[in-house]
Amino acid sequence: MSGSADDVLLTAGSWLASGRAVAIATVIETWGSAPRPVGSHLVIDADGNFEGSVSGGCVEGDVVAEAADVIASGQPRMVEFGVADETAWRSGLSCGGSIRIFIDPVT
């Protein structure tokens, strides 16, 4: 789902209030044909539920997996996907471009 940034942040607040462990992924840099602009958000809980979008479906699965580790460790992480490495084919950015996403646990 690709609701507005406000909707995603409201979801994060609601999930936190209900006791769910949460991380927020934010697009911080793009190049080429990345489908979501800088500042786009994805909120993820420890069970893999998510709201929002950082790539229009290209890398959400990988970001959710990375977020599980971020939630478990409590340590933020920067991830990057692009045509210059093996993630291009695994994660669906084979059309070109790159995307850098910061994943931050929220407490």
UniProtKB/TrEMBL annotation:
Domain XdhC- CoxI: 15-82
Top-level lineage group: Bacteria
Any matching Pfam family: XdhC_CoxI
InterPro entries xref list: MoCofactor_Util/Proc, XdhC_CoxI
PANTHER family: ALDEHYDE OXIDOREDUCTASE MOLYBDENUM COFACTOR ASSEMBLY PROTEIN (PTHR30388), MOLYBDENUM COFACTOR INSERTION CHAPERONE PAOD (PTHR30388:SF4)
The protein's name: XdhC family protein
Organism for this UniProt entry: Terrihabitans rhizophilus
